[in-house]
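Task 17 of the worksheet. Students: predict the tertiary structure of the chain below and write it out as structure tokens. Keep your answer in the requested format; marks are given for formatting as well as content.
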Amino acid sequence: MTTCPWCNAPRDSSQKFPNCGAIYAKAEAIKSHVGKSTQLSRGALRWGFLVIGAAAFVDIFATWWAASHDSSMLPFGEFESGLKSDALSLVEDYGWTTDAMIHRHLAIGVCCMIVLALVYAWGVRQARQTAK
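Model answer:
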């Protein structure tokens, strides 16, 4: 049994880690705020990472936001390979309640937005200091 290094969710080695999609999506978006001396800030990759990260985050967060208002929107099910979805596995195998699962996923999403806002504010501050 392994755990996710970021969210400590238990997983066996055959399944992906839950909750980490939002963190990864924000990391992709944050890459657009790197220093001006790097290739990422000058090239088209910057905008590609920003769009991919933002779209991934919105997709993930929207699922859990909708589930907070309508429990039928929860991503329960099984894959064609027979593996359970992450949500179903957390509820059935690890004993999470659906409310706790929804609130934890939303909390991670909000934390990701806060981190992005802090990185953005830091970038604005750096730009203002450079302009002086």
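Marker's comment: DSSP finds five helices and two strands in the chain. The longest helix spans residues 98-131.
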